[in-house]
Every structure is written in C-alpha cells, then in structure tokens.
Amino acid sequence: MNVFSVPKEAWYSSRDDRTRRAEEIDGIEDFSLGIIIHPKVESSYPIQVMSAIALNLLARWCRKLKVQVSAQAVSILPYTLGQNLKDSLSHELANIDPYGQFDFNSSDMRDCDQILVLGQPQESMDLAGRQFIWVDGYGWIAGVGYGFPTAQSNHVEDETNPLGATFAACLGVAEAFRYALGSIPPKSKSVWYSLYDFKKAEVPAQLKSPKYVPEFDFGRIHQIGCGAVASSLDFLIAFTQLRATVYLIDYDQVDFTDCNRCLPFYAQDALLKRDKIQACSDALKPSRTSQMRFKGDYGDFIAKNGFLTTAPDIILCLANERNIWATIQNNLPPIVLHATTTLNWGVNLGRHIPKKEWCIMCRFSREMDISFHPVCGEVELKKSNSQEKPVQGVLPFLSTVAAVLILAEMVKMAMKDYPVNDDFVEFSTRNTGTQFVTAQRAAEEGCVCNEQSLDLYQKETVTSKFWRLTDNKKEKA
After folding, report:
1. Which of 87, 118, 198, 259 has the least CB density, counted as fewest CB within 10 Å?
2. How far apart are CA 451 and CA 296, in angstroms?
3. Where are the domains of the chain?
4. Eight-state DSSP code of residue 442
5. What does the alpha-carbon distance between residue 269 and residue 278 come to, in Å, rounded to a whole number?
6. What is the Cα–Cα distance from 283 to 248, expressed in whole angstroms?
7. By CB neighbour count within 10 A (0-12 exposed, 13-18 middle, 19+ buried), where does 66 fall?
8. How far is Cα 171 from Cα 429, in angstroms, rounded to an integer?
9. Rounded CA separation 207/415 (Å)
C-alpha cells in the first residue's frame, strides 16, 4: 500500500488552493454530508454509476461523509467489477483524499449538516426527520429534488446507459455544495432533465429517453488536452461500451491542485507527478477503447505528421493554450466538439460540423486578440459587495458536468437522427431547476472555417466516419 507522505495541512492547502480563492467558500471544510444509497444498488447499473460519480466528486471537497450502502452489493462497474461495492467505494475515497473522514459503517445521520439520497427516497429510509436532497438517473434522464418526489422514475433492469445517472450525480453534488455555502434550499421541489434533447419537466414521463447504441465504434479520436474536463470524460467513457482509438495529447503532469475536480486523478498521482496522458490512459483501460499517448501539444503532434498518419474521425478540443483553436481549424478538421465552463456556475458545449456550423474560432474570435482563454472548472463567485472586483474560484463538479455533455453528444452521433440538438448548449448549476439554453449558429462570415473550400480538405478528412454530416450543398450549387 502506498504511503501518502504529504502532511495533512500541506495536502489540503495545495488541493483546495483554487477552491479557496473564492471568498464564499471559507469554512466549507467543516461541512458534513450523509449519503443514503438506494437498496436497488445491488442490481441497478445506473444507481451504482450514480454512487461512484457522486462520491468521487464529493470526496474532492467535502472532508466528512457518512455513507449508507448495502454491505452485500457486488460491483458491476468496469473499474471494480466483481468486488464488494462498499469496500471498493471506501478504497476509492481514501485514494482521492487520504485524510478524509469517510464513514461507511455508521447509520446515524443526525450529526450531518445535510443528507443526499442517491436513487429516489423511500418512506422506510431513516432520514433523521430532516429535509434532504435526492437525485435519480437512468437512460438519458436525471432528476433532482428536495423532499419526496412527486413522480417516480422508471428504472429498467438491464439499463446500461450511464448518462442520466452521471448527470444526476453532478446535480446532487452541486446542490450539496451550494447548501454548504449557505444557500437556503426550497422546502419541496422536483425537476427532471433529458440529455437527449435538453428538455426539462416536472415528471420524467414527459421526457425522451431512447435506447442508445452500445458498442458503437467511433474510429479515431484526437483528444487534445488531458485536464479537468478531458480526464473526467475519459473516466466516464469507461462506463460505456463505446469503442474507439483515442489519441491522448498533452504535455502536462498531475498537480495537487488538479485533485479537487478531475475524476481519475488521485493524491498519489500528484505526489508522483504522473503524466496526465498516462493517468487518462489508465482511466480508459477498463473501457473498450485503445489508447495512444503523445506527450506534447497539438502543434507538436501535427509537426510529427500525426494529423495525417492517424487522421481523426472526431476531434475533442479540451485545451485552450498554445494557439490550439487556430491550429485545429487551419488543418481542416472533421467534426469538432469542445466544452468550457462559464462565469455563472455553468458549462458550454460547442459542436462544429464543417461547412455547416460555427467553429471554435467563430466562437472566440473576438477574444483571441487579447489572449482570452476560457477556463476549465473555474467560476466567478462574486463577493457580497458588488462594487468589489470578483474573484475566481473552482467548482469541483463543473468539469464533470461538461464531460457528461460531451459524452452525451458523442453517444448521439451513433444514432440515425443525429444531430439531435443545436450546436451550442449552456447549462448553469447556480440555482435548482435551471434549464438548458441552446442555439444553432452558422459559420461566421470572414472566419477561416467559412472561407475554406471543400476542395482543400484532405482525403483523410473527407473519408472520416462522420463527414456525411457536412453540408456542401452551397458549394455544389
């Protein structure tokens, strides 16, 4: 067993440094949360996914957790398949925070500041006579609420789609985080979302949740960046049956400050300064993907002829430095997906289908001249005095919210009716029950993506897996 040699105060000072940059987060280290996991965890893949993701995210900022979970449950998750679920979750949390107070043996939640139920609550649960948060997720659908829900979800026993469960976990962690900051929760509220078409409803029956295509092969994926959003995406991919050859491209190493929001990065990874590409490769190993690692930036990768010799079917732009946007677009890419966080507790998802939709340079062209860099995992938390300059802080769950939106978009690419949604999606976690904002945006006049003729695209791009989505009617006319 590895011994973590960093003293407790030094560990928390480093890990929580970027979180503590926000004034409102003072004192959050004293917050305690009780977790009650639904008994169906023994057979339900979505509830096991939801539990693994929620506990992973919580342990990155909440130092005191009490967890009630069936002692008989056996893991059906790819990372811990066949192990005792309770033991594997306990071990995972210890790796995330070696000094955390994570109690899996006490059923008394009376001394917890708040309770989070994973899976819809039952009257028979011992909730200490308290108000509580609940989340539930299955298929494409995720729900969150306070008090007993007004409608029941419809779990399918053989459900293997992890999207709704993952999004539900993020929603629950966001609610707990805001409660820890002093937010006053509503007495009773329920809201449900579908990641399929980004709709919201009061009852899940009103939302779409079609079957997803398991074991779809995406071909070659160039994943540019292995930071907060990218590493969390890799962790989530392992919960699917999707296939691909993933080229992991990054030059950086894991740092202690990464450990407050990156799903697969552990305390020992930061202590040993592991390459991020290696940590992400390890996260993908339980998946049905194969991984290729490249230590360097995308410019280095292209300079070594990596773009043409391993021509991508999809590019995931999950980095923002070293002129990455122009590098991608000037190499005439196939479909590109990208995601960033916003300054309002939210995330943005962007998609570029060549010659049809705006590219990442369209999106950020106005800011490029002033060295603007959208951030991954950061959010603006304003001080109570609006006259003062706002400060930047890190929300531990935002990167995973962005990652699940990217994964949802990828899963939809395997479906016959793709694209399902607009090419721009935004979601905020600042309040309970906010809705998705979507928009369809064409390539901007004057942008390089709009001026490039189809004749310029290399055959490697034109023959990529999703090139059929390109709208070339304008050039054929």
Report:
1. 87
2. 30
3. 18-206, 217-476
4. P
5. 10
6. 12
7. buried
8. 7
9. 18
Query: Hey, is 281 helix, strand or coil?
Result: helix
- Measured over the CA atoms of residue 49, residue 209, residue 133 and residue 402, the dihedral's sign is positive
According to DSSP, residue 413 is labeled: H
**Which amino acid is it at 198?**
F
| Strand order across the beta sheet in which 243-250 lies | 290-295, 243-250, 217-224, 314-317, 335-341, 346-352, 424-428, 437-439
**Do the domains 18-206 and 217-476 sit in the same CATH topology, yes or no?**
yes
Class of domain 217-476: alpha beta
Q: Which residue is associated with the tokens 């994964």? A: 407
Contact 191, 202 (CB under 8 A): yes
Determine the longest span between alpha carbons in the chain, in angstroms: 71
Give the Cα separation of 444 and 426 in Å (integer). Answer: 20
Residue that the structure tokens 């905020």 belong to: 428
CB 299 within 8 A of CB 323: yes
pLDDT in tens, the chain (477 residues): 457 899 999 999 999 987 877 556 667 889 999 999 999 999 999 999 999 999 999 999 999 999 999 999 999 999 999 999 999 999 999 999 999 999 999 888 999 999 999 998 888 888 877 889 999 999 999 999 998 887 777 776 668 999 999 999 999 999 999 999 888 887 778 999 999 999 999 999 999 999 988 889 999 999 999 999 999 999 999 999 999 999 999 999 999 999 999 999 999 999 999 999 999 999 999 999 999 999 999 999 999 988 889 999 999 999 877 778 888 888 889 999 999 877 668 899 999 999 889 888 888 765 554 444 455 555 555 444 444 444 456 789 999 999 999 999 999 999 999 999 999 999 999 888 899 999 998 888 888 888 878 888 889 899 999 999 986 554 443
DSSP codes joined into one string, 4-35: --S-HHHHHHHHTTTTTTSGGGTTGGG-EEEE
Superfamily of domain 18-206, CATH level 4: NAD(P)-binding Rossmann-like Domain (3.40.50.720)
Q: Which two tokens stand for residue 407?
A: 């994964």
**Total length of the chain:** 477
Token pair of 36 as six digits: 């009650």
Structure tokens at 28: 């959050």
The single-letter code of the amino acid at 287 is: S
Give backbone dihedrals phi and psi of 101, rounded to 5 degrees, phi first. Answer: -95, 90
